[in-house]
Amino acid sequence: YIPLEKMRDYYQGDARALNRLQMELVAGRVSSINECFYWTNAHASMLRGSASGSGVEVDIQGINGNADAAAIGVEFGVFLMRFAEAIVSRDTQLLKTSRNNLLDIAGPKVVVEAAAVAANFQRMVRIADSIGIPIDEISSEAGNKVREELDLAKFTSAKHTSDHYIGGLTK
Length: 171
What we know:
By secondary structure, the protein is an all-alpha fold. Helices cover 61% and strands 0% of the residues. The protein has 8 helices and no strands. It has helices at residues 20-33, 37-54, 67-70, 77-89, 92-106, 108-131, 141-149, 158-164. Helix 5 (92-106) crosses helix 6. The longest helix is centred in the C-terminal third of the chain and has 24 residues, at 108-131.
């Protein structure tokens, strides 16, 4: 979705409706709802890193569905979080309501990009879980803090990483 050379570009270019913080919140929320250890860990880490790189304070608990947390530092954060939840839920009325709410506050370009990010990671979590992909770096202090804060060891898919790193995680 983002070219490699843009991965550390935390700002929203003219061609984008969503900034990096918004993308990571949506992708992280979809991943968390699906209990994907790999992608939830990655997006929470990138949300925190993107915030740090742009001098913004965020609370990564928005990825776990905490609306107060989603509102910190992420423009339209609560609306984006709710829209991601509705997409995953497949509840037609909830999706219509959350889409209209996001549309009213943020406009059509944000809705389209948020839907694309959510749909992409609805697919990506299936791939990561089906192949049993472990996280890349189990021992980083920042990663350990994210996993602990979000209690990611509770996800069944955490087993892929603990099996890979033998004894690296506990439930």
